[in-house]
Amino acid sequence: MSHFSSEDEVELQGLLKSLLRSVSERISGAPSVECAEEILLHLEETDKNFHNYEFVKYLRQYLERALGTVIDEETENCMRAEGQAVTSGQDTLVHAVTRRTRESAEYKEMMHTLKNTMMVVVESLINKFEEDQLKKEEMHRKKQHEQSGGPYLDNCSDSDSSFNQSYAFITHEQLQVIAEKLHQSQPKEVRWEALQLLCCAPPSDVLSSESWYSLCRSLSAALADPDPELSEKVLRFFAKTLSSSPLNVTREIYVSLAKSLESDFLLRKLSIAAGSAGIDVNRPDIARLLKQMRLMNDFQKEVTSYWIRHPEKYMEEIIESTLSLLSLQHERDAGMPSTEKVLEPIHMMAMLDIKATWFKRWMHGSYSRTVVLRLLEKKYKSLIVASLQQCVHFHKCRGPSGEEVSDVTHMLGKQHIGPVQRTLYTTKELEYIHFVHSLCLLGRLLIYTNGRSLFPVRVKNRKDPVSLTDLIVMLIDTMYQHPKPPCGSLSHADSLSPTSLVMEDLRTLCDRTECAVQCLYQSPVIEALLAPIIALLRGEQAKVNTLETTLVHIADILARIATTRWGLSIFLYDTNLISAEGASTSAAHIIAQFTKRLLAENLPPLPGLGASTAVAGAFVFVCRQMYNTCVGLQVLRPYNLHECIVRAWRQACALAERVPTPVLGAAPDPCSQEAHDASLWAETLLDNLLNFAATPKGLLFLQQTGAMDECVTYMFSRFTKKLQVSWCEKFGYGVMVTQIAATAPGVAALRRSGFVQAIVVDLWSALECGRDDARVVQPRSTPMEPIDRSCQKLFLALVNLLSSSYAVWELLGQQPLPNKAEYSHREMPTSIVDLVDRLIAINSDEKIHSLFNYEQSHTFGLRLLSAMCCSLDSLLLLESQYRVSETLLQNQKDNTSDPPTGQREFIIDGLSVERNHILVRMGMVGGPSERRLPPRSLEKGADPYPWPMFSSYPLPKCYIPDIPKMPRTKGDTEMSHFLASWKGAERKQMDQCRLQYVKVMTSQPSHLTTNGMADLLEATVLHLSSSPSDCFFPLAEFKGGDSTVTPQSLTPMEQLGVQLTIRYGDHLGLLEGGSERDLCLLVTHCRHSSSDQQAHTTSTLSGLRGRFPGYDWFAATAFLLMSGDRERTWGFLLRFSSLLASAFLWPARLRAAAHLPKELARSEIPPVYSCTAHFVEMLLKAEVPLVSSAFQMSGFTPSQICLQWLSQCFWNYLDWMDICHYVCTCVLLGPDYQVYVCVAVLKHLQQSILQHAQAQDLQVFLKEEPIRGFRVTDYLEFMEGLERTYRPVVLEDMRTFLLGVTANSTQSPGTFLNMESQ
């Protein structure tokens, strides 16, 4: 054990003395002894140099010598007891070693020795301090006797005391003497000596003295004294007090400093004479004021970090004294020349803190902001008036010219008041500094509600008060006259330019919705922003200094406005602007016209603006913020921006390819830079073109440009780098990928880009390989969830990718499984077919043995299969092509035990439970009450899984609930009476039929039986098809006969679809014997009829090669509605095919039909997606915004799930009667009701959607779960409300879309105005 020698004690005494000297300032600033103790106890937490003190280093070495061996021994003992290395249990080991060391005898002996030694050292220091104090008192007595003066205390001796630089206590009598000696009447030497003594006294003693107020007056007088040494000494005392004292002390000092400055400015009116060079900061009176103002400003910026810990009155005194000083304004004397400039405190503050940092910090916290705004409103509004007056003056006089402003900002950026002194500020510089400070102050006010409530403000020489809108318009105009300096790195001088300051304020307002609504989303502001654009479109010269730079700034603000819902609404539907042609129009149309002019080379160039890709790219980006929304695309559709962008992109690509061959040693070729710029421009255009894929209809436009592959490849390159879509997008490319994957051309482009392969490889790495960089210390824990969290994101990505049956056809159609005889562990799947082969269709031991984590990986595959099978067309493809159900049944059969009784029993485990669920889902069709799906989890109790398992079809009876037989009689109802009396083809009777239908649906929906609805549909279609005005397509003619049709002519998918339909019809009691052949004939007739009307197209897409790849679910629905009557069904379908509704309710009917525009027919994007789903997303954002946001955050799209629902006529999602109601409603009330039904369903599911979006399984929920509790009749009133609001646009667009006509979205702007304002 180490003991201390006498030499050690002497060394410790010196080290401790050095430590106390280092922290003397902290201790002396403590208001009490207790506070000083707290400072020393927490010195390690607050002093960054703590471990560098020699005293601390000495103690650390002493501990190492005394306890090092003990710590090593205890560490070995603990590690030996645990039997493992220091890994995750390191914290536990440290605690154990610490506890045992503190309990050891060595530790106790060390502490005893250390305490005794330190007591001796401290006692020696105290004795020495007392000796030093006695010596000082003796010396003071002698000095007092010699000078016959009062009793002073000198605290600045050079004695060797450890506290010789700390404060000594001072009595009130001594302070009274100091106050008397500081009086202005005393000689300079006496005042100087008094200040010397005052600086050595603790500030807390000075302020608590009864003499403080007389001291304060004397100090203020000394601050204003012409003698620089005296005022400098007082300022040093103030600075020392402000830096080391608590707020209750410093606020007195600060307030006295502010009042002293205010008195000084009132007594001495400083001015800059006309014709003088400016203000010289070396002038003694100016230099003295600047130093005092700098001290104030430094304190203003620091005090915000701790004044919340003190009473509000302290903070209020500081704020009020500041505002009082800065609000000070001199009245101009009658004889003063108008050109003479009066120097105010605000000018001084602006010179020191040009961007009003102090005010920004005071306004940042609510604690201080409330006080500032209250005082500004009640007492010091003159400060706001003066700031606004300065901005108005700068704008009205147009300020200095652009070159002069650049010179001023350049000079201000090079030198500041500081180590590199500049001695002269010109009048123009002073004016500009005041303008910048005022603009920053006003910009901060506009951010807050109570700050904006201070407006309007009256200023001189202006008839009307300045409102918020007036101020913003004025700032925009200021930006036009003083554009930003040439582009490059933003220097300090650039940041002081008017344009940079205005843009900073405008961007800040854009980022805050409430501010933007009050300040920016106003017609005069939008008009001011678009004024240069309208002038250019008219062929006039824009009234701006630098056109290109200004236009880029305008586009920046417009893009920020367009990203918000309110901003987009004012762009699209506020028609207060006057276009170049003189007609009223909206901002969106002006921006689109201008962008089209910028992109189109065949149009005359805009005056004063060359071929600027920077301006064109900026305005394309503004348009992008509109066309990447459904409502914005609807308005901008007439301008065909996608065609303009793709033409410009192709031209840029052609120019970028003209790169000359580099020659060694040759000078750089200007053509190389031109090609490089063209390449960047092409990438910008491609990025903007890609964003058309954000909406269903935009994706169709993108497909029609022929640039789908290039856009998807570009997106994949950014997706792999995890880059954002743009600076204003909150989410990545997840939603866009999902949107693209919903269509056949989109998923084909994803496959060609490598996106599909990348997902498969990443999934396999996560499932089977694990992370390469993971250090394996212990085995990975067994996942408790069916899908491990590390794979959840990839699982959802695959669900999104394979959600659409079109995607499944493209990725799996006509591609057999490898089914290899041997699989290597290093063999990695690279396609969806490989994934199905390795994870789903596991039909051999080789496949099982090739998996490191068989159960986890197969469970993943089964969950993916379950999500895919929810799409009935995907189910039919998997079943017809891969016989998936046979593989699963065989797996169930193999997963049995062989007990002694001889009766085989199923082994209940995670995989068998998953397979049982999928087999029931695949083997039975029905709505929420028409089938029972077994759970995927075990229950508590003796029988954890009471549901029977099976290894062959048909399903056990327990999965097929008994449902009441559908009544076949028409019944004696109002609707049947109406149909019986319906004669003729008058439109009035059709309207009466609709009214009667709505009445029955809302009051007596049970009276509408299946047969009754069949009669209603038949009569309605007969009436509509007989009216030329209601026929949209020519009536189909079928040339084949029944003799040419056999069930064998059906595709395997169609045969399976027929079997599913027959089983469903039998279960509902709708069919009789012999229905299967009739349905086969009906499906064949429908296919032949659509083939006769099909356009001749050449495509690489599997969906456009040969037959329609899916099953005709609408024809099957009609067959069941007509109770299996083939002739009746066929007649209904033939007549129905001439109606507009058939294009949306009957997707198989219009596959690549000759009736469609060629571009639409070749796209392989069905109208139900590009039109119906498009409007669903648009209406959902307006009517159910929470659901729309939930989809956005989940990376899933409403269009994908709606496409699945509508493609299979809601089979498996709604009960049969609701499916019939859906069909009848859309046929009778109009095809636009298809949109309203989907919106009503999503509104019904709102609560569940929000919950599952939070649980991050929204995709799986919507695909796998039926729509429980939804009744068409319950939401008919809601849908009628949607019809009244949106039909003029939705129904008209459905018509024009199929005709290939561009709808004129300017006819009814009020329709969607209600959408965005809700």
UniProtKB/TrEMBL annotation:
Domain BROMI N-terminal as annotated: residue spans: 12-138
Keyword annotations from UniProtKB, A to Z: Cell projection, Cilium, Cytoplasm, Developmental protein
Source species, domain of life: Eukaryota
Region (Disordered) residue spans: 136-155
Residue ranges of every copy of the BROMI middle region domain listed in the record: 173-850
Ranges for domain BROMI C-terminal Rab TBC-like: 868-1296
SUPFAM superfamilies in alphabetical order: Ypt/Rab-GAP domain of gyp1p
GO biological process, one term: axoneme assembly
GO cellular component, one term: cilium
Subcellular location: Cell projection, Cilium; Cytoplasm
Record-linked InterPro entries: BROMI_C, BROMI_M, BROMI_N, PHAF1/BROMI, Rab-GAP_TBC_sf
Its job: Required for high-level Shh responses in the developing neural tube. Together with CDK20, controls the structure of the primary cilium by coordinating assembly of the ciliary membrane and axoneme, allowing GLI2 to be properly activated in response to Shh signaling.
PANTHER family: PROTEIN BROAD-MINDED, UPF0183 PROTEIN
Full protein name: Protein broad-minded
Organism listed in the record: Scleropages formosus (Asian bonytongue)
